[in-house]
């Protein structure tokens, strides 16, 4: 299968690209490398050193003999997207190429507008390119579990059958997301569902949970194949950030009481979910939604698990929640579709945590302690980050 | 009350501005006049001649002694929006200032991207300006009944209580809109609901039906106060367009079988709904939604009503539906909130239709017959309109 991975330079895009290549697919990647420039803007960087895209694909070729074609460019550039899709003519497009940090989208007006414009326009351009070039191309789009918010009813996989006043319909699951970033993904989902309806496109929306971990089978083959590890308050995901705090002997910080429950998954499951989704196409005209996570835990439970496993001393500290979110809520999200297609979950384990401690310790000299704490507050219209510029 | 009307030069923005002024409120308007340039792009124009904004406000002052301040500018220009809101410091912002044609948004990729960017970014800038300047400002935002689509269950006013697997929650009503324009309004609604949650803003989302008619008490005072009347295939709403077809002796064209049912309202009710909403503020933090229409009819019923009332001969012709929409569907949309606040509906009547025939006949020499038929097709990625440029 020919698969084009958009955002192929990112935390998950790169490991997905080489996982798909290792699984025998023809893979091309595209990226505008803007994620690397966010690092410069924020004065942050990946804990694990990452190679340039040229070095990455060269290393992959050297080690496996497999070629990955690279299309450098921006999805907001419509002619670029159109010519890339026409030139590579993939069977499947995997679309990771969005600004993916909630705090980044909440820095100020400019970052909110940037996030929504970048994500919504990029995605629209991909939809138009598919509709124009070949409506049979399967779009596999990364969404987020954060689109749903924390409703008091079970979270279904994208669609829900409602009985209301004696009548019934199957409708899109109502969303109530928690940041302008999460909102951009809700906008994308609505746009994609419409494109399936009017153009008969095939699409799968993967509402992914919080990813942790940094290594996959393929990235471990060579240091040049490593993917990024973010631990800062803006791009670091909760578990990865807490591992860094433990290694530094800092308290593991939970926002508020830490009662927020979220769906989690290991990076090794992310790449498998993508392979499984690509190999099981949505039907013509189908807007299919999978909830892509393997287990639910509260932020407090994540902290407890890390603290318990860390060989040294680790304490937990509650800090004022910079976000606006419920800290005590019902949470039961269905996530059976990917398991039904063959996903074998890799649950959070001591082995995984131990290996993460090791990776962080190896790179401890690269940690910028000042970057860890949250600097973006949801209730304010302009954060310290924006003001310090 | 101080009310700032965004999009105050448009079909409904202008009549609303002078209606609010006539009702004793202090009114300012803002517009970037882009609606007038769409006319140039499409080679179309208002059937009724319209004055410039300067002439409009001068006439209003001459006739009523009331002043309307004008802020010319673009909502996508964040500093402009911020300084306007800070300078005028309204109690209420009425936000009409969006690209509001479904066919226009479906012309091609460029028009889809323009519509979503323009509408979403403009609205985000308004939200940030309110959050920054004064969180007590009530945002009254124009949405559309088209956001809901045609579900098989009753359409509630923005929110719905769902019972699911033994649990209950009140959630945003699930939307399934029918164009990239309608989608932009869905995106806006989600963004506004979030702003109410994080910043405690007060907002009312008015999901308006299809408006017909051209005159209000205030616009009738002087020809310079007239608002636009669109009959073309891109910006003309269904009833107004059919009136023109009747006067020209052309068949009234329905798309497909004409079984599509839509909520309608008279322009005189639009301006009253806006007055009532402004004078009854949403609570702090409340995202309130009203369905703003007075009666539901199928497109076929609208055509039948006009044909029956037209003094000459009028025939009805089914043409291929350029849109993707159900033509035979359940439709029961609740619309009690505005009536509960005092709206007295002006239902479609022979008197109204007769007066519209008169206005069209007076301006018959200005009609461009070629502009009436649809030129934008939902299933195509690029319409005749785009290709002819």
Summarize the structure.
The structure is a homodimer of 389-residue chains. Chain A is an alpha/beta fold. Chain A has helices at residues 13-22, 34-42, 53-64, 78-88, 102-105, 109-133, 180-199, 238-247, 267-279, 299-309, 337-340, 350-362, 384-387, and strands at 2-6, 26-31, 68-72, 92-95, 138-144, 159-164, 167-172, 202-208, 210-212, 252-255, 261-266, 287-292, 295-298, 316-319.
How does this model look, in words?
Two copies of one chain form a homodimer. Chain A is globular. The first copy, chain A, starts with a strand and ends with a helix. The relative contact order of chain A is 0.16. Chain A has a single domain (2-387), classed as NAD(P)-binding Rossmann-like Domain (Rossmann fold, 3-Layer(aba) Sandwich), CATH 3.40.50. Chain A has 13 helices and 14 strands. The first copy, chain A, has helices spanning 13-22, 34-42, 53-64, 78-88, 102-105, 109-133, 180-199, 238-247, 267-279, 299-309, 337-340, 350-362, 384-387, and strands at residues 2-6, 26-31, 68-72, 92-95, 138-144, 159-164, 167-172, 202-208, 210-212, 252-255, 261-266, 287-292, 295-298, 316-319. A seven-stranded parallel β-sheet of chain A has the order 3-2-1-4-5-8-12, with helices on both faces. Chain A has 389 residues and is an alpha/beta fold. At the A-B interface, helix 6, strand 6, strand 7 and helix 7 of A face helix 6, strand 6, strand 7 and helix 7 of B.
Strand content of chain A: 15-25%
Helical stretch tally of chain A = 13
- N-to-C SSE series of chain A? EHEHHEHEHHEEEHEEHEEHEEHEHHH
Describe the biggest sheet of chain A? Answer: 7 strands, parallel
The name of the CATH topology of chain A is Rossmann fold
Shape of chain A: globular
Number of domains of chain A: 1
- For this structure, what is the CATH homologous superfamily of chain A? NAD(P)-binding Rossmann-like Domain
The whole-number mean of residue pLDDT values of chain A reads 96
What percent of residues of chain A adopt helix (DSSP H or I)?
A: 25-40%
Question: From the structure provided, what is the oligomeric state, counting identical versus distinct chains?
Answer: homodimer
